[in-house]
Amino acid sequence: MSTKPKTNEDKSGKYIIDNWEVDYSVSGVVIGLEIHLQLNQLKTKLFCSCDSEYRGKEPNTHCCPVCMGLPGVLPKINNSAVDFATTLAISLEADISEKQFFHRKNYYYPDMPKNYQTTQYNRGGGVPFANGGKITIKTQQGNSREIQMDRMHLEDDPGKLVHIGTFVTSPYTKVDYNRCGTTLIEMVTKPEIYDAEEARAFLNKLRAIISHIGISDIAKDGSFRVDVNISFENQKRCEIKNIGSVRDVEKAIRWEIMRQKLLIKQGKMINQETRAWNGKQTILLRTRGRLSVFSRTRFSTF
Amino acid sequence: MQLWKEHAHSVIERLESQEITAEELTISCFDRIEAVEPKVKAYISLYKEDSLKEAKKIDNKRKKGEKLGPLAGIPLSLKANISVNGYNNNCGSHILEGYIAPFDAFVVKKLIREAGAIFIGHLNMDEFAMGSSTESSYFGNTHNPWDLAKVPGGSSGGSAAAMAADEGIMTLGSDTGGSIRCPASYTGTVGIKPTYGRNSRYGIVAYSNSLEQVGPLAKCVKDSSLMLQIMAGYDDMDSTSANLPVDSYSEMLEGGIDDLTIGIPKEFMTDGIDPEIINTVKSNISSLEKMGAQIQEISLPNLKYALPTYYIIAMSEASSNLARYDGLRYGYRTKNKEKIKEIQTRFKAAKIPISQTAAEFMVTRMEGFGSEVKRRIILGTYALSAGYADQYYVRAQKVRTLIKNDFISALKKCDILMGPTMPNTAFSIGTKTNNPMEMYMEDILTVPINLAAVPSISINGGFDTNNMPIGIQFIGKYFDEKTILKTAYTLEQKLQLFKRKPQL
């Protein structure tokens, strides 16, 4: 399974990795996964009755005053979305919260017409849809091991920015709000995964469960997206955002372990970074502290 | 025929018996509006043609003997934050210039589409309902009909001024921290803030979701109860509206107030309140006592925390609610390319390069919002930002529960509470605009009611030596609007102050 990477530079050009023999049985590395699952088997969006199937549709035809956040509208929870989330929570043996809350994650972005995301995740110690849960996987040694889940919650997906060519070269940006307001479930594992194989086994098992209970057709493009958090002992954590397939998750973890190990070997500290996987390597998106000032509030408190 | 002088409940019979037509009534209202509007400036927009068309339609239906709604043919004016399909509800703000609502608010559906009231225009208000004087409106000041140099109160100042000046038959306002009751008090009109959840907020442009309610602002208690019984009720589009039966309030007003226990919160009768107002409240208390009510002094010990609690919650929610106005999809959008460039350069100099879109959002909001709105957005964003939310917003929510519990326990001992609505009568235009704290202090007796989410009504209780109206406030138990309406009606009938009108 081991690969020999070629010379590469990341955006800042700081590190060069050349022919680094990877030792996968590294100790001291912990991995946590964050999974965004689209509930694409729902007929309508999370807070309104618009058709939630946005793929292949004329742009901006599946919108209404509610998902467009026009002045004066109010959200109304989709009961089926709660049912789907409940089914998933039971399948993972998670504890469903008796009282459910939504919060607002406030930040400005053109694909989000209200300029906040309505989510159950509240950094200030809010109540998620469900706490805990677990998935049992088989390790490479043939033992079975339980991977504990931290929490899961419901939230709405933003719209889509459409560019001509790439983000940088496009003369203008178009916005398609058909996806805006569709339902996502975010699941977060405890940092209890120790290598790429375990991550793969975990994700495959999770996908099997999701397919079996029928809450989402994960074969659809963009339905199952993973963020990976990797950190070594006494080091800062790096996050690799938005990976689309299990195979890529596995590759990205391998690459990132290698990158961080090299840095540590050189006596450097790992920066807290957000990175992306481009199919070959992880690249720097931003270091912590930039563009991440969110504020949160509850709505409809009673 | 001076039909504009009429109240809703009195014109209903005349319309039904076809003694008068809806068209005559609407024309009469517009005659009055055209005569006094230059002095009062209560309206932002008027739709004479559309409303006369509607009136004719209703008259035709009536002639044919078709079944009509209970308010058929009666002109209704709305605060400018209430959405009517096809009309611009600009909330008194520049930033919603040109925005046309593509849907009806629930209360519009009820009062206009179902009950048959005729929408005649949108009324002036403080920008996004933020203020107690209607001075923060982008469309200029509204003047108090009792003294044109004074404010009509706010934020539903246009609604209240229109009622006091007889510019229309009935109006709706919205109340987040006193925005219906304050102007009702300053203009001698009747305003009710229903229990939170009594009616749907769908279509009312949000300022502070957990506090605000829409309610009638009318010439008398009977009209208010008529409107409330039609607009109240459950709405599938507002998850916070209560699925509870609505009484026929207008038929439950008579019968007196025997056996009623009225609590007087001592915190409402303290030094900060104008002595003339205290005296008026006291004389009304003794009138009610003579009519058979039991009077009891009670205490709301956490009332002193109400004002800061209110402003933290309201500003926090406002900062989030107003985030959507960025000019990208609707409303005002800046064309000031130089300013956009300048902002980009300034951010670049601070080593935070931003996109043209982000700079455009900033300039649009800089130019689109007035200073009071900006002040509240900035303070609210600060109170919600990472690391501060627990100290401010979350703590304010906890204090809110304490205040709520004060009201719940007081209303276990009494049927209703009573006190002044405002600490003073209407003040002169321009005297408080430069001192926001003084302006916020105006709300000291109204915000606790919104925090506790109980219903409250303000009616005219008398006049001060300058001939300015003094508001009296009745506060009821959750969803018990009928008791405060009945008490207010009993006092109103005794005082007969609605017969006194400002000279215009």
Keywords:
heterodimer; A: 302 residues; alpha+beta; ten-stranded mixed beta sheet; 3 helices; B: 504 residues; alpha/beta; Amidase signature (AS) enzymes; eleven-stranded mixed beta sheet; 11 strands; 12% strand
Q: Any overview of this molecule?
A:
The complex is a heterodimer of chains A (302) and B (504). With 302 residues, chain A is an alpha+beta fold. Chain A is built from three helices and 17 strands. In chain A, strands 3, 4, 7, 8, 9, 12, 13, 14, 15 and 16 form a ten-stranded mixed beta sheet that branches. A three-stranded antiparallel beta sheet of chain A has the order 6-5-17, with no helix packed on it. The N terminus and C terminus of chain A are likely disordered. Helix content of chain B is 40%, strand content 12%. In chain B, strands 1-3-2-4-6-5-10-11-9-7-8 form an eleven-stranded mixed beta sheet, sandwiched between helices. Chain B starts with 7 loop residues before the first helix and ends in a 9-residue tail after the last helix.
